[in-house]
Design a protein that fits this description.
2 strands; mainly alpha; 280 residues; two-stranded antiparallel sheet; 10 helices
């Protein structure tokens, strides 16, 4: 018995990724059902989504924010704080191992070289003069950073730290003869900026600050106990941190005000430093 011939018709086209037509994919996006090649696949709560659907979903879902309006990181760990500690610790080991002092000579803040080598205002904040110096600073950074980083968000926190370090360096130059060849190093200016920020932000959030004042008092006494500590950087960093925290407390979710205020404070500090060298 014979069967009539049935024409199967043209072959079905292979499923190709819309973004990469040369890629055949049998995996489909759970949202739009389009074929999705490995380059465009993104893990979702259920199955896989394509990059286009992930981007579209990001537009419709508000960005998670911290209590002060900074971007909330998916990972709650204080990554910036631990990274800063890691860099300072690694440089201290390198300082100790080299024994030649070339790091100190190249990157410490010498007032006489501040105008021609301005990077020293920041790099000096990552070097330390001795074991107790780095231990005190890193312990304070760990405590304060673990508190402030989740509150501010990573970007605002790192700006607070670096601009406070700059403010401490400029204060050191303002209150030291420009002919001085005595190099200043240490994260103290940045750390005192964190102290100042905690005081302002806790007040804005109506949180207790008693413990902070005790820690601040202990750190303020250290220059009188240990010689050769640049108290000028402490004062400059503290005032800078307070100014930045005031801006962040007022800005909250207003990103323009937060980062515009940060830029304005940074420029003002830079202008003070430049005026010191121009006026003499």
């Amino acid at each position: 018995m014979t069967q009539p011939y049935a024409d199967p018709g043209p072959p079905m086209p292979l499923p190709v990724c819309p973004r990469h037509p040369d890629q055949v994919s049998y995996v489909r996006c759970q949202r739009c059902a389009n074929p999705t090649c490995p380059q465009c696949q993104r893990p979702a709560a259920v199955g896989i989504q394509c990059v286009s659907c992930v981007a579209e979903a990001a537009k419709t879902h508000p960005t998670a924010r911290t209590v002060l309006g900074g971007r909330r990181a998916g990972d709650a760990r204080p990554v910036v704080t631990t990274s800063l500690i890691g860099v300072c610790a690694a440089l201290y080991v390198l300082q100790t191992a080299s024994g030649s002092g070339w790091l100190f000579q190249k990157f410490s803040l010498l007032p006489i070289l501040g105008w021609s080598e301005p990077w020293r205002f920041i790099t000096s904040a990552f070097l330390h003069g001795g074991l107790m110096h780095i231990v005190f600073n890193m312990f304070a950074l760990w405590l304060l950073g673990g508190y402030l980083e989740p509150m501010l968000g990573r970007l605002r926190f790192v700006l607070l730290y670096l601009v406070s370090a700059l403010g401490g360096g400029v204060a050191y130059v303002l209150l030291t003869p420009l002919t001085s060849r005595v190099g200043a190093v240490g994260a103290s200016g940045a750390v005192f900026g964190l102290f100042g920020a905690v005081i302002i932000l806790n007040k804005a959030l109506r949180r207790d600050t008693a413990g902070i004042w005790v820690n601040l008092a202990i750190n303020a006494v250290l220059p009188f106990v240990y010689p050769n500590i640049a108290w000028q950087a402490h004062v400059g960093g503290f005032l800078t941190g307070m100014a930045l925290a005031f801006v962040y407390a007022r800005a909250r979710r207003n990103q323009t005000l937060a980062y515009g205020g940060t830029a304005a404070i940074t420029l003002a500090i830079g202008a003070l430093g430049a005026a010191r060298y121009l006026v003499g």
